[in-house]
Design the sequence.
């Protein structure tokens, strides 16, 4: 299959209205083959997201010679025992959700003498099946991450409870923005990034301040086993 652009995605790619730009579209390739990554890269996408370290590593290795400038971000839950591999293949971790993981990443990065951008994941819907710090616990997580000199805390990420009506996600997107604003005020640190919104609700997310949207199905169709 070819990568397809809906009118809405094309508008995002072109920075419609001057409020959003194509570099904020993260193409989610979970469950899709590396051949589709190649097609997306040829279509102009440079920012890619993967949920699993091993699956992402396979695709990164498969395309990195021909497309060395692609940027890969880990967007799925990260186990501490896979942190070293994640740092080897990904340029950012968007799913930092606990203080123990922050400490593990800090130790590994300090040993390499480098910093890595991270987003704090917030479970805005308080869903037991999802990872992420609770809205009440995220301030403590942020303090812990801010104390790690090799973590560049750029903002927050969240996946609201699914609802076929995109408007039902708006209160969750708004709450994430409010949490980010409060953390920035309390800490005195800039937190410019908000990663929220997926294929079915990204337009609402952009209206509520998203700087990055994660689009998979709208670009690539339904997932298959990779």
Sequence:
């Amino acid at each position: 299959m070819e990568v397809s652009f809906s009118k809405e995605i094309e508008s995002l790619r072109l920075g419609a209205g001057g409020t959003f730009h194509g570099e904020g579209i993260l193409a989610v390739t979970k469950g899709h083959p590396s051949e589709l990554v190649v097609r997306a890269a040829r279509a102009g996408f440079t920012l890619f997201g993967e949920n699993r370290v091993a699956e992402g590593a396979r695709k990164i290795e498969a395309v990195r010679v021909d497309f060395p400038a692609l940027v890969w971000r880990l967007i799925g839950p990260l186990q501490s025992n896979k942190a070293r591999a994640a740092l080897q293949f990904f340029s950012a971790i968007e799913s930092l959700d606990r203080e123990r993981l922050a400490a593990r990443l800090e130790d590994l990065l300090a040993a390499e003498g480098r910093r890595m951008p991270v987003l704090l994941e917030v479970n805005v819907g308080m869903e037991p099946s999802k990872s992420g710090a609770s809205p009440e616990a995220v301030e403590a997580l942020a303090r812990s991450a801010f104390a790690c000199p090799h973590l560049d805390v750029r903002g927050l990420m969240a996946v609201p409870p699914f609802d076929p009506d995109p408007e039902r996600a708006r209160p969750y997107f708004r709450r994430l923005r409010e949490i980010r604003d409060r953390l920035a005020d309390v800490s005195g640190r800039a937190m410019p990034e908000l990663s929220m919104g997926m294929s079915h609700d990204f337009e609402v997310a952009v209206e509520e301040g998203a700087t990055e949207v994660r689009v998979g199905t709208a670009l690539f169709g339904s997932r298959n086993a990779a």
The first helix runs from residue 7 to 13. The chain has a mean pLDDT of 91. The beta strands are 25-28, 47-50, 71-74, 92-96, 116-121, 151-157, 193-195, 213-215.
